[in-house]
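Example 3.2
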Amino acid sequence: MNGLELARGYYEEFGKPMLEADFANILPFLAVGFVGSGSEHYGYDDEISRDHDFEPGFCIFLPGEDVVDRRHAFQLERAYAKLPKEYAGIKRQNISPVGGNRNGVIRTSDFYLKTVGSETGQLSLEQWLRLPDYALAEAANGEVFFDNYGEYSKIRENLICMPQDIRLKRLAGNLLIMAQAGQYNFVRCMKHGEPEAAQLACVEFVNAAMKVNFLLQDRYMPYYKWSFRALRELVGTEELSEKLSFLLFGDNRDNTVAERKYDTIEEIASETITELQDRQLTEAICGDLEKHAYSVNDKIADSTVRNMNILIAVGD
């Protein structure tokens, strides 16, 4: 049983009856789910993950105090704290009465402020450009068990739908990184006799290539610990993940391996260009990813975004 299954079962067996019996008056204004940071919210947790922040629990999201006041919030916190201390052989953490940092009673506005820096989920242009992929992934992962009021889910859906111009800006920037790190710097580092620097170029290329594939499938890449696992879940990425893995593990000090790496980089570049052309995201006709990066950037409708530095939305 992973963390998401544990949370859902714990809610269904204990949380739902408690809410229906004791909080029927405010139930129409609540949302319940299991979302946020941590591998368990992606379904990626395992036995090793249980050494910290692993417990039966879920999140109860509240709207503003004008809808659910402090008194009712406090009563919910007390009731949540009194739920069984163990479920499926796993004990709840002995921490504050409001649950934990990840579980318990949480104002919807507080959750989104912590996750993406906005209480309402309405992001400025600067925030859309600067927010790291993993922060947006954390705002959209896990599962919402129910949302009677709809406020939480509406914000969640708005964040999942990244504006097209922002997506294109992120895509263009990462394509340029792929070109610079893979098609250009890897070979130059090897010619300079710097296999370590060449490997850093590989890492940059791999990271950018992964982000490009998430962007092309309208998904956010999670924190790097889970990025490869998430990549393998995307449609049609099995062969790509194997190629990227080779770029990370192959020894650059072996000239034969280094040559295979360069060929692999060019294969990935070619496949990426084909995907861009099939989606009509580029007008360039060549094998140079840099030219395709600028062609994608030219597709941005908003002139302010289009004229910004092409790397402004790349992030870490």
